Protein backbone atom coordinates (compact mmCIF):
# COMPACT_ATOMS: atom_id res chain seq x y z
CA UNK A 1 0.00 0.00 0.00
CA UNK A 2 1.34 3.46 -0.92
CA UNK A 3 1.78 5.93 1.85
CA UNK A 4 -0.11 9.21 1.61
CA UNK A 5 2.22 11.76 0.16
CA UNK A 6 2.94 14.79 2.26
CA UNK A 7 1.98 18.01 0.49
CA UNK A 8 4.89 19.78 -1.06
CA UNK A 9 6.04 23.20 0.11
CA UNK A 10 4.66 24.63 -3.12
CA UNK A 11 1.22 23.11 -2.44
CA UNK A 12 1.23 24.52 1.10
CA UNK A 13 2.12 27.98 -0.18
CA UNK A 14 -0.56 27.86 -2.87
CA UNK A 15 -3.15 26.68 -0.35
CA UNK A 16 -2.21 29.40 2.10
CA UNK A 17 -2.39 32.02 -0.65
CA UNK A 18 -5.82 30.76 -1.73
CA UNK A 19 -7.13 30.96 1.85
CA UNK A 20 -5.71 34.46 2.20
CA UNK A 21 -7.43 35.56 -1.02
CA UNK A 22 -10.74 34.05 0.11
CA UNK A 23 -10.43 35.77 3.48
CA UNK A 24 -9.70 39.10 1.76
CA UNK A 25 -12.69 38.69 -0.55
CA UNK A 26 -14.92 37.91 2.47
CA UNK A 27 -13.58 40.89 4.41
CA UNK A 28 -14.19 43.21 1.48
CA UNK A 29 -17.67 41.97 0.62
CA UNK A 30 -19.40 40.33 3.59
CA UNK A 31 -20.82 42.55 6.36
CA UNK A 32 -21.01 39.62 8.81
CA UNK A 33 -17.25 39.13 8.68
CA UNK A 34 -16.77 42.86 9.04
CA UNK A 35 -18.83 42.95 12.23
CA UNK A 36 -16.78 40.14 13.79
CA UNK A 37 -13.35 41.54 13.07
CA UNK A 38 -13.92 45.27 12.67
CA UNK A 39 -14.78 47.21 15.83
CA UNK A 40 -14.61 50.59 14.16
CA UNK A 41 -18.39 50.97 14.34
CA UNK A 42 -18.03 51.70 18.05
CA UNK A 43 -15.41 54.31 17.28
CA UNK A 44 -17.71 56.01 14.79
CA UNK A 45 -20.60 55.99 17.28
CA UNK A 46 -18.34 57.76 19.80
CA UNK A 47 -17.54 60.63 17.44
CA UNK A 48 -19.22 63.96 18.17
CA UNK A 49 -22.11 64.88 15.91
CA UNK A 50 -21.41 67.73 13.53
CA UNK A 51 -23.16 70.94 14.46
CA UNK A 52 -26.20 71.67 12.28
CA UNK A 53 -26.22 74.19 9.48
CA UNK A 54 -28.07 77.48 9.86
CA UNK A 55 -30.52 79.49 7.82
CA UNK A 56 -28.76 81.73 5.33
CA UNK A 57 -25.39 79.99 5.37
CA UNK A 58 -23.63 79.59 2.05
CA UNK A 59 -21.97 76.19 1.58
CA UNK A 60 -19.53 75.43 -1.25
CA UNK A 61 -18.57 71.86 -2.15
CA UNK A 62 -15.28 71.51 -4.06
CA UNK A 63 -15.46 68.28 -6.04
CA UNK A 64 -12.37 67.07 -7.95
CA UNK A 65 -14.51 64.95 -10.31
CA UNK A 66 -18.21 64.49 -11.02
CA UNK A 67 -19.48 62.01 -8.38
CA UNK A 68 -17.12 63.01 -5.53
CA UNK A 69 -19.65 65.56 -4.25
CA UNK A 70 -22.23 62.78 -3.97
CA UNK A 71 -19.96 60.12 -2.46
CA UNK A 72 -18.62 62.39 0.25
CA UNK A 73 -21.42 64.75 0.99
CA UNK A 74 -24.85 63.92 -0.49
CA UNK A 75 -26.43 63.63 2.96
CA UNK A 76 -24.65 66.75 4.23
CA UNK A 77 -25.89 68.68 1.19
CA UNK A 78 -29.46 67.62 1.91
CA UNK A 79 -29.20 68.58 5.58
CA UNK A 80 -27.72 71.97 4.76
CA UNK A 81 -30.56 72.79 2.37
CA UNK A 82 -33.21 71.50 4.79
CA UNK A 83 -31.79 73.88 7.40
CA UNK A 84 -32.16 76.84 5.03
CA UNK A 85 -28.56 77.05 3.83
CA UNK A 86 -27.67 77.59 0.17
CA UNK A 87 -25.44 74.92 -1.38
CA UNK A 88 -23.12 75.50 -4.32
CA UNK A 89 -20.97 72.89 -6.08
CA UNK A 90 -17.81 73.36 -8.14
CA UNK A 91 -16.43 70.46 -10.18
CA UNK A 92 -12.76 70.97 -10.92
CA UNK A 93 -12.47 68.36 -13.70
CA UNK A 94 -15.00 66.66 -15.96
CA UNK A 95 -13.68 63.17 -15.16
CA UNK A 96 -12.49 62.59 -18.71
CA UNK A 97 -9.41 60.48 -17.99
CA UNK A 98 -10.91 57.01 -17.34
CA UNK A 99 -10.31 55.08 -20.56
CA UNK A 100 -12.22 51.95 -19.53
CA UNK A 101 -15.26 54.19 -19.06
CA UNK A 102 -14.92 55.34 -22.64
CA UNK A 103 -14.56 51.76 -23.86
CA UNK A 104 -18.00 51.00 -22.40
CA UNK A 105 -19.80 54.26 -23.12
CA UNK A 106 -18.38 54.89 -26.60
CA UNK A 107 -18.23 51.16 -27.47
CA UNK A 108 -14.71 51.30 -28.85
CA UNK A 109 -11.69 49.20 -27.91
CA UNK A 110 -9.15 51.99 -28.30
CA UNK A 111 -10.78 55.33 -27.32
CA UNK A 112 -9.64 58.31 -29.35
CA UNK A 113 -9.13 61.77 -27.86
CA UNK A 114 -12.57 62.68 -29.25
CA UNK A 115 -14.08 59.66 -27.50
CA UNK A 116 -12.55 60.83 -24.24
CA UNK A 117 -13.93 64.33 -24.76
CA UNK A 118 -17.35 62.85 -25.40
CA UNK A 119 -17.00 61.00 -22.10
CA UNK A 120 -16.16 64.29 -20.39
CA UNK A 121 -19.31 65.95 -21.70
CA UNK A 122 -21.38 62.92 -20.74
CA UNK A 123 -20.07 63.12 -17.19
CA UNK A 124 -20.93 66.82 -17.09
CA UNK A 125 -24.54 65.91 -17.87
CA UNK A 126 -24.53 63.18 -15.21
CA UNK A 127 -23.19 65.62 -12.64
CA UNK A 128 -25.96 68.11 -13.27
CA UNK A 129 -28.59 65.38 -13.00
CA UNK A 130 -27.08 63.97 -9.81
CA UNK A 131 -27.08 67.25 -7.91
CA UNK A 132 -30.60 68.00 -9.16
CA UNK A 133 -31.64 64.81 -7.31
CA UNK A 134 -30.10 66.41 -4.22
CA UNK A 135 -31.99 69.65 -4.79
CA UNK A 136 -29.15 71.81 -6.12
CA UNK A 137 -30.13 73.91 -9.14
CA UNK A 138 -27.84 74.37 -12.17
CA UNK A 139 -27.50 78.06 -11.27
CA UNK A 140 -25.59 77.06 -8.15
CA UNK A 141 -23.09 74.81 -9.88
CA UNK A 142 -19.78 75.54 -11.58
CA UNK A 143 -18.02 73.24 -14.03
CA UNK A 144 -14.39 74.28 -14.31
CA UNK A 145 -13.37 71.46 -16.67
CA UNK A 146 -9.63 71.11 -16.01
CA UNK A 147 -7.83 67.83 -16.90
CA UNK A 148 -8.77 64.69 -15.00
CA UNK A 149 -5.57 63.26 -13.53
CA UNK A 150 -3.63 66.46 -14.27
CA UNK A 151 -4.18 68.72 -11.26
CA UNK A 152 -0.79 67.97 -9.72
CA UNK A 153 0.90 68.96 -12.99
CA UNK A 154 -1.04 72.23 -12.98
CA UNK A 155 -0.08 72.81 -9.36
CA UNK A 156 3.64 72.29 -10.10
CA UNK A 157 5.29 72.13 -13.53
CA UNK A 158 2.41 73.61 -15.53
CA UNK A 159 1.46 76.56 -13.39
CA UNK A 160 1.98 79.01 -16.28
CA UNK A 161 2.64 76.79 -19.30
CA UNK A 162 -0.38 74.92 -20.66
CA UNK A 163 -0.57 71.19 -20.00
CA UNK A 164 -1.79 68.81 -22.71
CA UNK A 165 -3.95 66.04 -21.26
CA UNK A 166 -2.79 62.67 -22.63
CA UNK A 167 -6.25 61.13 -22.87
CA UNK A 168 -8.19 63.96 -24.51
CA UNK A 169 -5.37 65.76 -26.30
CA UNK A 170 -6.85 69.00 -24.93
CA UNK A 171 -4.77 71.85 -23.55
CA UNK A 172 -7.71 74.11 -22.74
CA UNK A 173 -11.19 73.79 -21.22
CA UNK A 174 -13.58 72.31 -23.80
CA UNK A 175 -16.55 70.88 -21.86
CA UNK A 176 -20.11 72.12 -22.06
CA UNK A 177 -21.36 74.55 -19.41
CA UNK A 178 -17.78 75.47 -18.43
CA UNK A 179 -17.24 78.52 -16.25
CA UNK A 180 -14.45 79.79 -18.53
CA UNK A 181 -14.55 78.09 -21.96
CA UNK A 182 -11.13 77.96 -23.57
CA UNK A 183 -9.20 78.61 -20.35
CA UNK A 184 -5.71 77.10 -20.69
CA UNK A 185 -4.79 74.05 -18.65
CA UNK A 186 -2.54 75.94 -16.23
CA UNK A 187 -2.45 76.22 -12.50
CA UNK A 188 -2.81 79.97 -12.82
CA UNK A 189 -6.05 79.66 -14.81
CA UNK A 190 -7.40 77.08 -12.38
CA UNK A 191 -6.73 79.30 -9.38
CA UNK A 192 -8.25 82.27 -11.20
CA UNK A 193 -11.44 80.28 -11.77
CA UNK A 194 -11.53 79.12 -8.16
CA UNK A 195 -11.16 82.71 -6.98
CA UNK A 196 -14.08 83.66 -9.24
CA UNK A 197 -16.16 80.93 -7.63
CA UNK A 198 -15.21 82.07 -4.12
CA UNK A 199 -16.02 85.68 -5.00
CA UNK A 200 -19.45 84.73 -6.36
CA UNK A 201 -20.43 82.33 -3.60
CA UNK A 202 -18.82 84.07 -0.59
CA UNK A 203 -19.02 80.76 1.31
CA UNK A 204 -19.39 80.42 5.04
CA UNK A 205 -18.39 76.75 4.77
CA UNK A 206 -16.20 75.04 2.16
CA UNK A 207 -16.25 71.24 1.92
CA UNK A 208 -12.98 70.07 0.35
CA UNK A 209 -10.99 66.84 0.07
CA UNK A 210 -8.50 66.18 2.86
CA UNK A 211 -4.78 66.16 2.07
CA UNK A 212 -4.63 62.49 3.15
CA UNK A 213 -6.93 61.43 0.29
CA UNK A 214 -4.89 59.03 -1.84
CA UNK A 215 -6.02 60.30 -5.26
CA UNK A 216 -3.59 62.91 -6.63
CA UNK A 217 -6.37 65.18 -7.95
CA UNK A 218 -8.00 65.11 -4.51
CA UNK A 219 -5.02 65.98 -2.34
CA UNK A 220 -3.79 68.53 -4.87
CA UNK A 221 -7.16 70.30 -4.70
CA UNK A 222 -6.87 70.18 -0.92
CA UNK A 223 -3.57 72.08 -1.04
CA UNK A 224 -4.99 74.66 -3.46
CA UNK A 225 -8.14 75.18 -1.37
CA UNK A 226 -6.13 75.68 1.81
CA UNK A 227 -3.85 78.19 0.12
CA UNK A 228 -6.70 80.22 -1.38
CA UNK A 229 -8.77 80.24 1.82
CA UNK A 230 -5.71 81.13 3.88
CA UNK A 231 -5.04 84.10 1.60
CA UNK A 232 -8.55 85.29 2.50
CA UNK A 233 -7.91 84.57 6.19
CA UNK A 234 -10.82 82.12 6.04
CA UNK A 235 -9.08 78.77 6.45
CA UNK A 236 -11.28 78.10 9.50
CA UNK A 237 -14.25 77.79 7.10
CA UNK A 238 -12.84 74.61 5.54
CA UNK A 239 -14.25 71.19 6.36
CA UNK A 240 -12.52 68.11 4.98
CA UNK A 241 -13.71 64.76 3.62
CA UNK A 242 -12.12 61.65 2.11
CA UNK A 243 -13.21 59.37 -0.75
CA UNK A 244 -10.00 57.45 -1.47
CA UNK A 245 -9.10 56.60 2.09
CA UNK A 246 -6.99 53.45 1.89
CA UNK A 247 -6.87 49.95 0.46
CA UNK A 248 -10.44 48.80 -0.32
CA UNK A 249 -12.02 51.36 2.05
CA UNK A 250 -14.90 51.53 2.66
CA UNK A 251 -15.64 47.89 3.40
CA UNK A 252 -17.71 45.89 2.89
CA UNK A 253 -18.28 46.80 -0.73
CA UNK A 254 -21.76 47.21 -2.13
CA UNK A 255 -24.92 48.73 -0.69
CA UNK A 256 -25.16 48.40 3.11
CA UNK A 257 -27.33 51.31 4.32
CA UNK A 258 -27.59 49.84 7.84
CA UNK A 259 -23.84 49.98 8.44
CA UNK A 260 -21.80 53.02 9.51
CA UNK A 261 -19.17 54.64 7.34
CA UNK A 262 -15.99 53.88 9.26
CA UNK A 263 -12.89 56.06 9.51
CA UNK A 264 -10.66 56.03 6.42
CA UNK A 265 -7.37 54.32 7.33
CA UNK A 266 -5.22 56.98 5.65
CA UNK A 267 -6.91 59.72 7.67
CA UNK A 268 -8.09 57.90 10.80
CA UNK A 269 -6.41 60.39 13.15
CA UNK A 270 -8.15 63.48 11.83
CA UNK A 271 -10.58 65.11 14.30
CA UNK A 272 -13.66 63.64 12.62
CA UNK A 273 -17.26 64.64 13.24
CA UNK A 274 -20.18 62.40 12.37
CA UNK A 275 -23.06 63.49 10.12
CA UNK A 276 -25.94 61.11 10.82
CA UNK A 277 -28.28 60.47 7.87
CA UNK A 278 -31.94 59.56 7.90
CA UNK A 279 -33.24 56.66 5.82
CA UNK A 280 -34.76 59.17 3.40
CA UNK A 281 -31.43 60.96 2.99
CA UNK A 282 -29.67 57.65 2.37
CA UNK A 283 -32.20 56.74 -0.30
CA UNK A 284 -31.77 60.05 -2.08
CA UNK A 285 -28.00 59.67 -1.89
CA UNK A 286 -28.36 56.27 -3.55
CA UNK A 287 -30.48 57.81 -6.31
CA UNK A 288 -27.80 60.43 -6.92
CA UNK A 289 -25.06 57.76 -6.99
CA UNK A 290 -27.05 55.73 -9.52
CA UNK A 291 -27.27 58.77 -11.79
CA UNK A 292 -23.56 58.31 -12.54
CA UNK A 293 -24.14 55.38 -14.87
CA UNK A 294 -20.79 55.78 -16.63
CA UNK A 295 -19.13 55.14 -13.26
CA UNK A 296 -21.44 52.59 -11.66
CA UNK A 297 -20.97 50.21 -14.61
CA UNK A 298 -17.37 49.83 -13.47
CA UNK A 299 -17.23 51.02 -9.85
CA UNK A 300 -20.78 50.45 -8.65
CA UNK A 301 -19.91 48.38 -5.57
CA UNK A 302 -17.31 50.93 -4.47
CA UNK A 303 -19.63 53.90 -5.01
CA UNK A 304 -22.67 52.36 -3.31
CA UNK A 305 -20.52 51.49 -0.30
CA UNK A 306 -20.67 55.21 0.61
CA UNK A 307 -24.43 55.01 1.13
CA UNK A 308 -24.24 54.43 4.88
CA UNK A 309 -25.75 55.67 8.11
CA UNK A 310 -23.38 58.61 8.30
CA UNK A 311 -20.88 60.81 6.53
CA UNK A 312 -17.65 62.17 7.98
CA UNK A 313 -16.29 65.72 8.09
CA UNK A 314 -13.15 67.01 9.76
CA UNK A 315 -12.64 70.63 10.85
CA UNK A 316 -8.89 70.29 10.38
CA UNK A 317 -6.56 68.90 7.70
CA UNK A 318 -4.12 67.39 10.21
CA UNK A 319 -4.33 65.46 13.48
CA UNK A 320 -4.05 67.61 16.56
CA UNK A 321 -1.30 66.64 18.96
CA UNK A 322 -2.54 65.03 22.12
CA UNK A 323 -6.16 64.94 20.96
CA UNK A 324 -8.24 61.86 20.32
CA UNK A 325 -9.93 61.66 16.91
CA UNK A 326 -13.24 63.51 16.70
CA UNK A 327 -14.45 66.77 18.11
CA UNK A 328 -17.37 69.11 17.66
CA UNK A 329 -17.43 71.64 14.86
CA UNK A 330 -19.43 74.70 14.14
CA UNK A 331 -20.15 74.91 10.39
UniProtKB/TrEMBL annotation:
Annotated keywords: Membrane, Transmembrane, Transmembrane helix
A Pfam cross-reference name: PIG-L
InterPro entries per record: GlcNAc_PI_deacetylase-related, LmbE-like_dom_sf
Membrane-crossing segments per the record: 12-30
Taxonomy, superkingdom: Bacteria
Protein name: 1D-myo-inositol 2-acetamido-2-deoxy-alpha-D-glucopyranoside deacetylase
Source species: Deinococcus carri
Gene it is expressed from: mshB_4
